[in-house]
Design brief:
The chain is of the alpha/beta class. It has helices at 17-24, 40-46, 62-65, 86-91, 104-119, 122-130, 154-164, 179-184, 192-198, 218-223, 241-249, 288-309; strands at residues 3-6, 28-31, 50-55, 73-76, 96-97, 146-150, 169-173, 187-189, 201-204, 229-232, 255-258, 277-279. The protein has a seven-stranded parallel sheet, sandwiched between helices. The mean pLDDT is 97.
């Protein structure tokens, strides 16, 4: 029986029937046996007998994919494909599908939660109160302030909708600008440099490409207001992490809420020492509803691709 490797740990956790769907389609499902993001060596050991893979953020580069001679389909559990060598897949006729829209609301919720928690210093106050220290801690206002959204796809639009509830002035940047949508929702177009220099809050929702890698660097931080709050629930590589550390250490910005890092968990010890950084474990999409929807979509996508490849 051909095998299907499933790497995301939340796959089928609540909607367990999806595992049976794979089995009933004639494939042996192989669930992540390590309880963590798989390494390249672990993937190389698991993939040779697989006809398909449902993958999260595990590295499927050419080196790994070359060890999977029977692979006929890749189903991304999410939307970002920067961990998959798309050129290799194209050259070898391996279709790659994504679960577009499955987790958009969950991620938008989490991005705005990070924004609010950073502004009102929720985690700092919580730690202080648990230490029986009851002095007041001043936060920053949110209502009526400005937010810059880099990447106005489904998640970026979701953040803009939540910002509207706080009467925020919304500026946004996207390579594929939808002028009609922006006008209808009161969103003003702005280049990244304008967003960096004028907005009280900045939320990142861009894909990771050669053009966007380290977009937020020392130069970008130098433009930001000292009261600015930066949120990233997209990809770690969008931010130069050493530049982020310097900006937070020197209080060139007020705080940051970061759910994604270049390496997960990050190895840099300085990140763990920052009181003005709220860290996430790449968990913005981790809700029951989003997990159920992604599990079903990823399963449907994979089985359709495998059927088409027969």
């Amino acid at each position: 029986m051909e095998k299907v490797l499933i790497t995301p740990r939340s796959y089928g956790k609540y909607r367990t029937a999806v595992v049976d769907e794979i089995r009933n389609a004639g494939y042996e499902p192989i669930l992540n046996p390590y309880g963590q993001i798989l390494t390249k060596d672990q993937l190389k050991a698991l993939l040779p007998d697989c006809a398909g893979v449902i993958v999260g953020v595990d590295p499927l580069d050419a080196d790994v994919l070359s060890c999977a001679p029977n692979l006929r389909a890749i189903s991304k559990y999410g939307v970002g494909t920067d961990n998959i060598d798309m050129e290799y897949c194209k050259a070898h006729g391996i279709p790659v599908t994504i679960t577009r829209g499955a987790n958009s609301n969950a991620v938008a919720d989490y991005a705005f939660t990070l924004l609010c928690c950073c502004a009102r210093r929720v985690t700092e106050i919580d730690r202080q109160c648990h230490a029986r220290d009851w002095h007041k801690m001043m936060g920053l206002d949110i209502y009526g302030k400005s937010i810059g959204i880099l990447g106005l796809g489904a998640i970026g639009r979701g953040v803009a909708q939540r910002a509207a509830g706080f009467s925020m002035q919304v500026k946004a940047y996207d390579v594929f600008w939808d002028a009609a949508y922006a006008e209808a929702h009161g969103i003003a177009y702005a280049e990244p440099q304008e967003i960096f220099s004028t907005c009280d809050f900045i939320s990142l929702h861009l894909p990771l490409t050669d053009e966007t890698r380290n977009l937020v660097d020392d130069a970008a931080f130098s433009l930001m207001k000292p009261s600015c709050i930066l949120v990233n629930t997209a990809r770690g590589g969008l931010i130069d992490e050493r530049a982020l550390i310097r900006a937070l250490q020197d209080h060139r910005i007020a705080a940051a809420g970061i759910d994604v890092f270049q390496e997960e968990p990050p190895a840099d010890p300085d990140l763990y020492k920052l009181d003005n950084l709220i860290m996430g474990s790449h968990c913005a999409a981790s809700t029951v509803g989003a997990s159920d929807t992604m599990s079903q979509m990823a399963t449907d996508n994979l089985l359709q691709s495998l059927q088409a490849a027969r």
